[in-house]
Amino acid sequence: MSTDQKDLEQQTSRFCDVGGMTVHFHDLGKGEPLVLLHGGGPGAAGWSNYSRNVAFFAQRFRTIVIDIPGFGKSDKKAASKDVLEFMAGAVRGVLDSLDIPKVSFVGNSLGGGVALKFALMHPERVERLVLMGSGGSIPIFNTMPEGVKHLRGYYGGTGPSFEKLKAFIDCLVFDPSQISDELLRGRYENSLDPEVVENPPLKMLAQSASDQLWRDNLGTLPHRTLLVWGREDRTVPLDAAFILLRTIPQASLHVFPQCGHWAQWEKADEFNSLVAGFLERA
Questions:
Q1: What number of other Cβ atoms are within 10 A of residue 234's Cβ?
Q2: pTM to 2 decimals?
Q3: Catalytic residues
Q4: Is the dihedral of CA 217, 274, 179, 189 positive or negative?
Q5: Model pLDDT for residues 79-135, shown as the tens digit of each residue
């Protein structure tokens, strides 16, 4: 990460209280509000997930990058029941603290599921949705994708390790040679937080059906929705997009070739232009 980007990260860092829980976020840029929600892999955080996108979006939108509870600099509190409802409630708390009544969302993986849950709970507060390799659906042909196996096993067995983390991150991209040692080390160190190791934020998700939003009435969603997938996604495979595409009335699908689960990172320039065009289109 460049010095300029590190400075921007520090300068835009904010905290707010949501029902006694501290939630961390970044707030930068001007214009229509856009919320970026990160994925749920070990050591994930908002800024690192969108490091190749934040500056671009901040030139066009008021860009709010949230660390979902259990991740980044937010409190390491895990949900006791419905994980996505708990996380969507934290997002609502951030928006309320900023007095923002309506936003568009870009959500990757877990963040896509949280955005979709927020839209189901508060449809009047959502402008448009960009769901990228999104949680909340189910693969039609892949019952247990490779990336999900790595994710569920990371805190189990002998516990976290650098080798486990690398195997998982390698699953997120089409070309693992692009992954730097700095990125891996940062994610690994974040994943070792004692509170997270003791109570992983997605533990309840693996034990319940709370992420199966495809069972909800997605046909009631009025929002223009852009589904973005990497064709070679090994964590939330492309066939998980099909139920969302069929059931969300105003959904369209864009597929990047030679791309895994991190479309916003692997195809950053194309992704940025695609999303900005979708959000700004009349």
A1: 20
A2: 0.95
A3: 261
A4: negative
A5: 878 899 999 999 999 999 999 999 999 999 999 999 999 999 999 999 999 999 999
